[in-house]
Amino acid sequence: MKSARGVKARLKAKLVALAEDNGVENASTMRKQELMFAILSAVRKRAGAM
């Protein structure tokens, strides 16, 4: 069974990678909630919806 801490760390690493792939600057310094918002904003901006 995996520990919750390990799962959370892996989730943050995946969010950072996704953010960087979408052009979010300073992704490694953001909290998870900030990362999710920044990723959504970047995707919307790229799609022209914002």
Task: Characterise the protein shown here.
With 50 residues, this protein is an all-alpha fold. It is 68% helix and 0% strand. Helix 1 (4-21) packs parallel to helix 2. The protein is elongated, with a radius of gyration of 12 Å. It starts with a helix and ends with a helix. The model has no long low-confidence stretch (mean pLDDT 90).
Short description:
The protein has 50 residues and is an all-alpha fold. Helices cover 68% and strands 0% of the residues. α1 (4-21) runs parallel beside α2 (32-47).
Taking the alpha carbons of the first and last residues, their distance comes to 42 Å
The count of helical stretches stands at 2
| Rg result | 12 Å
Using the alpha-carbon principal axes, give the shape.
elongated
Residue runs with pLDDT of under 50 for 5 or more positions: none
Mean pLDDT: 90
Q: Element order, helices and strands?
A: HH
How is the secondary structure organized here?
Layout: H1 4-21, H2 32-47
Helix pairs in contact: 1-2
Features:
50 residues, 0% strand, elongated
